[in-house]
UniProtKB/TrEMBL annotation:
The chain crosses the membrane at residues 12-29, 35-54, 74-93, 99-119, 126-146, 166-187. It comes from Corynebacterium gallinarum. Keywords: Membrane, Transmembrane, Transmembrane helix. This is Phosphoesterase. It comes from the Bacteria.
Length: 189
């Protein structure tokens, strides 16, 4: 496997839609609330990816990683609407607070990354990784802090395949951390 192939594999395996699914599965295991957790996983992972595929088929976005900054606004709005629909679905379930906070944090993430994207194409891959790992570290187990050690690997992959610059990766890391701290202080502190 070449460095390029490895970077592409890492980029796919740690894509935001997959990270969201994994995140809510962990919260499901942590809370023993599988129906809301799996609903959130589908609503923040699978449904947004299906939306992106649909937008690709319509010619509105160029690729599934939305590498063109000017195409990201439509995707952020579409995913925001998906998460709002998820909120309505979760209202019908016995959803624990931790899953609610995860979902509301997703909305905050979308708004803040959407605003940042007006200036720079921040790396959502790296930003979401940092956001989810810090969230899980603060709420589930301090062992999750070790996950931050993988951040440079994801950053390298995004830079290696020319989807981001170092500046875009750094902005993604900082923005992801800020989103988590804000959400923690607003929803859990």
């Amino acid at each position: 496997m070449t460095a390029e192939q490895l970077a592409r594999a890492i980029s796919e395996l740690f894509a935001p839609w997959i990270l969201n699914i994994g995140f809510f599965v962990v919260l499901g295991a942590s809370t023993s609330s599988w129906a809301p957790a799996l609903t959130a996983a589908v609503g923040t992972g699978l449904v947004p990816m299906l939306l992106i595929v649909l937008l690709m088929r319509m010619g509105r976005v160029g690729d599934h990683h939305i590498t063109a900054r000017d195409q990201r606004g439509l995707v952020y709005v579409g995913i925001f609407l998906c998460v709002l629909a998820l909120v309505a679905a979760l209202a019908w379930l016995d959803t624990p607070r931790l899953i609610w906070v995860g979902v509301f944090s997703a909305l905050v993430f979308l708004v803040i990354f959407g605003l940042v994207t007006l200036r720079i194409k921040a790396s959502v891959h790296v930003g979401l990784w940092v956001c989810l790992i810090v969230f899980l570290s603060l709420t589930v187990s301090s062992w999750w802090w070790l996950g931050l050690l993988f951040t440079p690997v994801t950053a390298w992959a995004r830079i290696r395949i020319d989807h981001h610059t170092m500046a875009e990766v750094i902005v993604g890391i900082v923005t992801g951390a800020v989103v988590t701290v804000v959400c923690y202080l607003v929803f859990l502190a």
